[in-house]
Every structure is written in structure tokens, then in C-alpha cells.
Design brief:
Layout: H1 3-53, H2 56-59, E1 78-82, E2 89-93, H3 101-105, E3 121-125, H4 138-141, E4 160-170, E5 181-194, E6 197-210
Antiparallel strand pairs: 1-2, 3-4, 4-5, 5-6
């Protein structure tokens, strides 16, 4: 075998292995995106189930002793939820129903609409149980949020980072309190790494809760 043939063979091998490495890297990025989406969806569904089963007086921000008294939905208020059965309560703050749904769903993923009274709920989840002590700040992790007021402290670098917009609406305001039904819109955005780039994806869940079923 001549030197030229050796060089050509090495060049061919480099092309083959280079293509294999690129395919492996692409597969890894796709797997990371799928895992992040699966975890984010499961977390959002868990919150939705909690919202449907909590005390109605809390859910509608009622100031009366009667759980079926008039709802107070026009101002931002908090709802107690848990990230896991063993975790302490985490407050989810509502976005007033005066904000259009098209405003919430039309925003680019990872960016909070400005001037629209949208309330960010930034949360960090240790989905891989690494318990990493390396932390960062929300302004560094999620630079396009409007406010960091309602966020869990010190997000872990390796954690799943998410943002929630929660809106509760009165679906039949003309009905008497005991015959009302309420709409739930939970918009959630999650963050994942695509190679060296940080990307955002957004989805939403909808639900209905009746005062009768409380």
C-alpha cells in the first residue's frame, strides 16, 4: 500500500467517524429535549390536579366564610401548591383575567409580555436527583422574565427551570355563586440545553372547575 492510499483511507475513516459523532450528538440533543418536555408536562399536570381539588374558597380567592361566596379574581392572588408530596408549600400567583389569552399564548417562549400584568412563577426542579450545590440567579437563567418576585430561590445549574402563568376565570358571571363554573388556564414554559444553546418551549393546560363539585 502506497503512502497516498494510506492517506486516502485515513481521510475516508475520518469522514465516517465524523458523521457518526455528529449523529450521536444530534441524538443526545433530541433525547435531552424529549426528557425535558416529558418532565415539564408531568409537573404541569400535577399542578392542574392540585388546582382542581383545593378548597374552593382558596381557589376563587373568596373573602367570605361560605366557600361558594363571590369570587375575587381580578387581582393577583396566591394558591398553595406542592412540588412533591414531601415538599413544603409553593405559592402559585395568578395572572388577572383582564390579560387576554392571546397575549399569554402569543408570547415567544421564555419571554414575558411587557405591560400586560402577566405574573411570572419561576421554579426550579431537581428532576434527576443530583442535589447539586451549584446554583445561579434567575436573572441569569431566565433573562427575559418581567419580574423575579414570585420565584423559588437559587435555582440549581443542573435543574429543570420552568415558568408558569396561571389564570382563573369566571365562566358564567351572571349565575348565582353556587352555580358557577371556573376556567383554569396554566401556561408553562420550560428550558433545555440544545448543545451549547439554551432553548425554550411553551405549552398550556386547560381545565374547568364547578362550584357544585367542591
Amino acid at each position: 500500500m502506497t503512502l497516498l492510499e494510506v492517506v486516502v483511507a485515513m481521510f475516508v475513516l475520518a469522514l465516517v467517524f465524523g458523521g457518526m459523532l455528529d449523529a450521536l450528538a444530534q441524538t443526545h440533543r433530541m433525547n435531552a429535549a424529549v426528557i425535558a418536555q416529558s418532565n415539564a408536562t408531568a409537573i404541569a399536570q400535577g399542578y392542574m390536579e392540585q388546582l382542581k381539588t383545593m378548597l374552593l374558597s382558596e381557589f376563587i380567592n373568596s373573602s367570605g366564610t361560605d366557600a361558594n361566596s363571590s369570587p375575587q379574581l381580578t387581582a393577583t392572588y396566591s394558591l398553595p401548591t406542592c412540588q412533591s408530596p414531601s415538599a413544603t408549600a409553593v405559592q402559585l400567583y395568578t395572572t388577572p383575567p383582564t390579560v387576554l389569552v392571546s397575549t399569554l399564548l402569543g408570547s415567544p417562549p421564555g419571554t414575558t409580555p411587557t405591560g400586560a400584568n402577566v405574573v411570572d412563577n419561576l421554579q426550579s426542579f431537581d428532576v434527576d436527583n443530583t442535589a447539586s450545590t451549584a446554583t445561579t440567579t434567575w436573572s441569569a437563567v431566565w433573562p427575559h422574565a418581567t419580574s423575579y418576585t414570585y420565584s423559588t430561590a437559587s435555582p440549581g445549574l443542573s435543574d429543570l427551570h420552568m415558568n408558569f402563568w396561571l389564570q382563573i376565570t369566571d365562566l358564567n358571571p351572571s349565575s348565582i355563586p353556587k352555580c358557577k363554573s371556573y376556567g383554569i388556564l396554566l401556561v408553562y414554559t420550560w428550558q433545555y440545553n440544545d448543545g451549547t444553546r439554551v432553548r425554550y418551549q411553551m405549552s398550556s393546560l386547560r381545565g374547568i372547575r364547578s362550584a357544585i363539585s367542591n
